[in-house]
Fold each of these.
Amino acid sequence: MNFLIWFLPLPPLLAFFTIIIFTNKSKPLSHTIAIGAAGLSWLGSMVIFVKAVGMQEFGKHIFESSVNWLPTKDLWLQIGVRVDPLSAVVLFFVAWTVLAIFVYSIGYHNFGQPKGDHDLPGMPPHGAIVVEKGYKSLVPSIEPMYSRFFAFISLFAFGMYTLVLSNNLLTLYIGWEIMGLCSYLLIGFWYGKKSARDAAVKAFMTTRIGDVFMLLGIAFLYSATGSLTFSEIFQPRVLEALLAANTPVLGLSAAGLIGLLLFIGTIGKSAQWPLHVWLPDAMEGPTPVSAMIHAATMVSAGVYMVIRMFPLISLDAHTMTVVAFIGSFTALFAATIAVAQNDIKKVLAYSTISQLGFMIAALGVHAYVAAAFHLVTHAFFKALLFLGSGSVIHGMEHGVLHTGEHVDAQDMFNMGGLRKKMPITFWTFLIGGLALSGFPVLTAGFWSKDEIFAEAFGKGHLAVFTVLALAAFLTAFYTMRQITLTFLGKARTRAAEHARETTWTMTIPLIVLAVFAVGFGWVGIPEHFPGLGGILPNWFHEFVGGTLAELPEAVKFSWIPLITSLGVALGGLFVGWLVYRKVRNPAEDRLQIPLLKNKYYFDEIYNSLLIRPAYWVAESFTSLFMDRKVIDGSLHGVARFSLFLGNAFRNYFDKPVINEFLGDGTGKAVKASGFSLRKIQAGRVQYYMVASVVVLVIFAVLYYFLNTGM
Amino acid sequence: MSIPLSWYLILAAALFCIGLYGVLSRKNAIAILLGVELMLNAVNINLVAFWRYFNPAQMSGQAFAVIVFAVAAAEVAVGLALIISVYRRRKTVLADEIDLMKW
């Protein structure tokens, strides 16, 4: 069992390396390896899930195992895996959504279609001319960087499995960062487009800000407790010690500060206000990327981390207030922006931000199980919606290529009437949209959202309740707006008239996810629900609630949250349909308020407040001043001084003394002496003889004096 | 002996110096040879004087003098041969003009 748990993240990792190193050139081989790996991990996840579900009191007998990795003086940083009820259900939805999205990607990237005429790697493919029965038609072409895509999503899957299965904050953080990297790579998948490159950098930078604070929290936790393993930190005495310790920051206890710092990581990763700006831009990536990373898995990782660390974060009331505030504020904030967006994917992006806000708000009011429940159901229906939108876009692009009309295939106001042209997409998208709105009983979204409302109301947090109710109304409203504009009514452009249903590799995952979007809610029906409660046990509450040391109490049933939830859901859907079935173009849409369309100008605010000053500092201060003037200046100074020294030596010492005096001087002296001394050799014998006689006399005298003087 | 040895030695020294002066100052090569002959003869006188006054019984003194004579004669022959050879080449016998071996 432990081997299986350790093994789970590995197939996608091996797939990544294999595709990159070996099968990059072969498209069918690459996707086979990727899907095979995802399938293996899916199988393993299902085995573990079934085993976990089958155990009694699983919360007390979890599967856990770790290895020592890096020594830090007396302790070890560890890598480990853990399967407890929470990670079992999360593993369930991760496995299914990952597999569905992998299969979907085959169709999305037009496998089986011819290569494009002018397709360059780095830009989205734009069609190939095919001659059929004598006349030419433009068909969608296969993505040139097909294998690269599958490699990256395999790496991403590895990151997510690592994060879900981790038993300590370090392994979780490793998975977290791997997913951040893959998010960057995949958002910037079509790197030829400047908007995609900018969006990738923006995503990475924004989540990085959150990650830095999270790392601070992890470091603080490690230094305070000496361990990062969940089972060790969640022991009552450790938690009490952390709550009792005081920190100099804002009067928070250690537990509160750590919780806050970790939560900031989630604000970044799950795109909560104020770090929400990267997620809408991240729609530049291909739709499977949006589905996987930004709906089902990566942004859920932030919420997952908060759920994991709930025993710690929930200790300090101040931190919980911050959490609840950010969650509910973001839920409403993003929902208001979503009603004014025209791009089908942007609506879903803001919807994701809003729904994550719901989950975070739930955690802020101590609704542990509700948040986990909504996490799982949201993953299914949001992935479904994104994949559905990708299918719509594909259908529209088919129409665009067919008619030659250059319309934006993603703008909802160019669609309309797609219900007849793309039935499977329509029905699955409808199911997803109803789940998102919280359509009663039949959709999973209703059960999870209702539980959040019940908890918020039942625990007395009326402000959160009201805000979330408003956000839910807007959610239903903009979802119906989206469905109405896209699928109902008549086609507004020729491209929409010629749209076509997509291939089975894209529609089958939609159907699978739709099944879950409908059915998953029924495992969590509260006991005291009128009529349906008690027929099926609230398995989810018992199972996931067992992760905590004490099973959280189910909140008492009250009619008010139920009526509110029904009201906002059905009301929002109805109003949305009513308003938008008549709207034909953006001019008639009265909600196209500039403030909302421009996302409350947050991008512009951040740009002028933070980004431009940062660039200014980088360019003027660091680059021009520090780098060129100070550092290069001192180097140049050293160089100039050495040059000066060298020249001085050369001119004042080397040349006059050594060259002229020693070198040339010796030569000249020798030459001069030679000139004068050679006159001795006159060639005349008598001179020689005179010389010898003189010398003889001198020697004789010397000899005489030496001998007698001695 | 009635004549003191020193008289012979002074005579030999005087002859030697005259010969030396002749060698050093005469231009004509043959005259230089004459001077050399004179020096050799002076040395011979010296030698014989010493023999006669210190050990007249031993033959080696006389033998020495005779050898010196022979050597002188041979040397003059060679010298003259050299001068004739030079004269044939350079048409001169003046020592000043035979200076090819100068610098």
Amino acid sequence: MIRKILYAAAICLIPTTGFCADPVYIGFDGSYGQKSDTSAKAIELGARTAIDEINARGGVLNGRPLELVTKDNQGLTMRGRDNYIALASQKDMIAVLGGKHSPVIVETIADAQQMKVPYISVWGSANQITDTVTTDSYMYRLSLKDEWGVAALLNQAIKLSPSNPKICVILPNTLWGRSGERVLREKASGGKAKLVSINWYNWGDKEFVRQLDACSANQAAAIVMIANEAEGALIIKELAARPKNERLPVVAHWGITGGAFAEMTGDALNNVDLRVIQTFSFVNNPRAKAQALARKAMTADNVQKPEFISSPVGVAQAYDMIYLLASAVNTAKSTQGTAIRNALEKLPAQDGAIKRYAPPFTRTNHDALDSHQVLFARIKPDGSIVPIR
Amino acid sequence: MTGSIRYQIQHQFIRIVKKYAVMTAGILLILISTFVLYNTQRNLLAQSDLVRTQLRTELSATLTQADTLIHSPILWTGLMDSFSHESVLKPLFQQLNRMQGTRFVLLDYKGRASITAPDVDTKALNLAEGAIADLPKNGVVVKLIHTSDSQDLLLMLIAVMSPLSEEPIGYLLTQFSVNASLQKSTISLPLHFAFNLEPAFSEDPWWMLSEQYNDSIDVGGYQFSYDTRYATSLLTDLTAIAALLALMIVFGYFFLRRTEQWLRNFAEQLTQQLDQLVNYARMIFSGERPQIEINASRDEEFNPNSRSSDGVHTVVKTLESLLSDQAVSQEKLRKMAYEDALTGLPVYARFLEDLGLRLSEPEETARPLMFISIDINKLKHVNDIYGYDIGDRTIRETASVLKRALPDPHLLSRRSGDEFVAWVEMDDAALNDFTAEVTRFNISHQNAQIPISLTMGVARFPEDASNMNDLIFCAEYAHREAKRRLRQSFVIFDQRLGATLIRTRQIEERIATALKLCDIKPFNQPEVDMVTGKISGFEALARWNDAELGWIYPGEFLPIIENLRLSNELTQCILSGVLKDSEQIRQRFSGAKIAFNASPADFHTNMLVDTMEHKPISKI
């Protein structure tokens, strides 16, 4: 609260803006408290960069500054729900951004529908986030959707061994994992890929020998891995320690880029063919907005090269989403949730760092991105994330 | 009378009995009470140990299970993910909570129930939510609730920490039913059990025996302590002890009353019987045989065994028996004293007794008898030549020969060694026959005949002596005379021998005085040289002219002097006389020598020289 007042006071004191009106709030519930997480900070960076830019131009609703209110869900669904409720209860809260953990967002759908404050995923990819409510949904996403994201993972895996598309799957026993599994099964049954082994794990598991043994035993040609940084690092390290013929190439969901994965995995990354799905990269991005964002992000992250910006998708997706929300609030001319929801559905086409949103959302489509944004990247031991050409 | 038996039994003894009965009962009561209470306490300790162990084991096991649970990735995932929460955790908790007793409740990060069970106390859930603020990250918060249905529910709250997060991602509340845990143990004692997290329990009533313990649990880094109190009612024990006490009092009262009664009777009976006994004893000792009457019915009073041989009877019998034994012993002694072991003849004492009786008969009924003193000649020679066996046989055969030869009535006795005495009623003719038969006979020994001869002296009653001592003396005198005469095997005491005896006695009675006064004097008998016809010397001869007895010659008094060992005195008298006479003799018969007789004993002293020098006599 003190922080908020100070922040507002600071804005008021800025002579160029010349306004001192009530801020318009945007909430963010991220998994800050998770030890190795980088996604929450990346999202915050992207959001704040956008907010700063918008506020610098006069804010929204004729001079009201945007203000980000963050909460830490630590990856816990109950905490996420409480955080959403707390944020959504706040006056002039136009929307709440959801972070890396899909289950947290999915768990809160009913609350969002009830509190009527849009809940927008800027990382979570589970289909249920935007698929659960089909009418008057307050759920939006500017991120990867497993529907096409996981399908892309499968396709990438097939590409690694087109002649023998035997795929081994390792995934968490969570809503995210189950969402991925369903897509994989659907796509595999329709395509030529063959899921030879599906292996589950729990958060906090320390050993993945069983899962990798199953992959080898089923003579898989590639592994599709759905994991966050902690478990992902253990899997890759375990794989790297195996004989060369058992070191299957891995196509990974992007959870691992939401944390200090490279740091935790180290040189093992040199010994494993790991590809990770992304929707965006600062590296060699021709878009002006992306480049401008990259500069700010590099400064904020204190890195010299764009490939070293942590969790780049989080930065870019949050950045673009804040702009979309700014448009929505201006369109709605209100901070009221339902007005924002409605405005979001009717936003005009506009440019973002990731792409040109034309339009971002429709009445039936609350997902701002699609499979066209999919790209695969390699993660190097130094932490850089470099797209594969 | 404080010292009487009756008083002692009726008062002092009963007082002692009472004192010791009360003391014994008291000690017994104390021992039994101590044992009962000790046993109850031991049971309580044993049971409480059992319960404590059971409780600690169950608590540890439960806490271990909870610890395992919170470190499970399944739980972490379930707390972080709604799908896993529903599809994995809920069935898992259902499974865990299916058993009776312990309940596991999963709480979210704020302490709200996430997965619970229907029978979890709502109070527990509220308490847990409130306790989260106090909960250390790796610790346990323990609370106790007492439900309305008297259940002690121990709540153990621990934080679920995942490796992904710095803060607890949830909490596990374990509701441990202390009562359900206790039901599993087999407790036979009616044990009152109380459980608390503080050593504060309500005070038990005084009749409860209780033990209190503080136990601690340390499992997986979770530590807490709890207090238990075990109590058991002593009412049953105390009732039993009180009943025992009452029983003892009743029994003791009747016992003491009965004992007092019995002792009173006993004392009465005893004194009566002792009196009776004394009377009986007096009668027995005075030779009467008392008729013993036992009052059986009264005797029953103090002798429940009811034997007819009661105390007094036994004592009387014993006394009689003792007296009888004494008589037998006396008879044996008498026999031993009256019978010579070698010959079977009456001993000398008995002989004397018998002789005494015979001689003490009144004069008109008294019968004349002869007393014979006999000895075996040279028995020592037989012993030396043939040995003591033959010597003994000689004595036995002599006794047998004498007994056979003596006409009845007679009594023969061996006085000592080879000496026999006998009294016999016989005349002189029979005496001659007897002496002829017995004075010489032979004893066969290994085809040889050992000649045995006897010497005898005979005195007659009442002719020779009127009393026993004189009679024996006369016979012995005659016996000695016979011995002296050598060739005569027997001598009968007669007037002549009696006169000799009297004169000898008279000489003995006077000789000491005569020597003192030197009435025995030297009579100088001249010795004439047959060639010259001149008197050449004198021999001083001892002569005693007694005023009453007249002249007494040396043949009479010298043996007496020798016997009485008065030789020195005689020699002294003679020498004094000679010395007195010598001057006159020398004047008349110059050169004449005076000779005198001296006894060998005279040379044992300086008497001769001293007398001649008129000195007192000194020893050599």
